[in-house]
# Entry
Amino acid sequence: MITVENVTRRYGSFVAVDNVSFECAPGTVTGFLGPNGAGKSTTLRILAGLTPASSGRATISGRDYHALPNPGRVVGIMLDAAAQHPGRTGSETLRLAATALGVPRQRIGEMLDVVGLADAGGRRVGQYSLGMRQRLGIATALLGDPQVLILDEPANGMDPEGIRWMRELLRDFAARGGTVLLSSHLLSEVQATVDHLVVIGRGRIVAQGKLADLLHGGGTLVRGIDQPALAAALQRAGLQPEQTSAGAWRVATDPETVAKAAMDARQLVVEIRSDDAGLEDLFFSLTGDVDRHAA
Ligand SMILES: Nc1ncnc2c1ncn2[C@@H]1O[C@H](COP(=O)(O)OP(=O)(O)OP(=O)(O)O)[C@@H](O)[C@H]1O
# Structure
């Protein structure tokens, strides 16, 4: 469990994180989304005990990071994959972490396998691509077999295959009762991985909830083989279809409700999907104002 309660972080008169609150429950993968400079890293650093909050409280499994008896056994953290020592090999990097954590050495090879670096363990990190460093960072985070994972921009530098691999790994971690919080500045990068979203802009939370609810907030787009008959059927079901410029119907509810109304009226649907333009729009409006110092 991760709990962030009314956390604020000021740098002089600048408020980097402004009264931020959210929770991440066991069994879920939460995406912490926002444009560059929104306050994601600062919030994660506060959770990791690296930056003190000006006010508010951030806890992992009910305790401040510094109050955890052996933190690496409770929470795996990766804040900056690119910052790993370039002169050490992947195996050496894990060996140092394993010694600090007090985990058996055999776990090093296991973790290299898990992250797909079994053949690269003997190479220096300086020769790794950013995607490989992300994998090594995730291996380090997993080393202590924690219940919680906190990853800052783990998809950064990963190719589509790497992102797919990470998705499987994190979903599997959550399916076994783990709690995952990962940040990203790209919705598209994490959309298929996360089930919850916390969206931050200019230091403040602007939206949070289940991914499905946030996406469905924009309603459903549907197209039938007989468009007028489909519209009539939706109206009979108490829904109010509006025609889009692309010729589909937009309905302000979830796809299941729309599909059921169409099926009950024996209307053949050829396309149906969530209209996630709302979330994309929210993102674009946030990304438009990156430099808050200049504001
Ligand atoms: N030590 C610091 N001193 C002054 N300002 C800081 C400090 N650390 C962060 N900031 C500012 O706080 C704001 C939030 O930064 P933060 O790194 O948390 O954003 P972010 O959402 O993680 O973005 P990015 O993906 O670019 O790291 C930025 O405007 C940043 O310049």
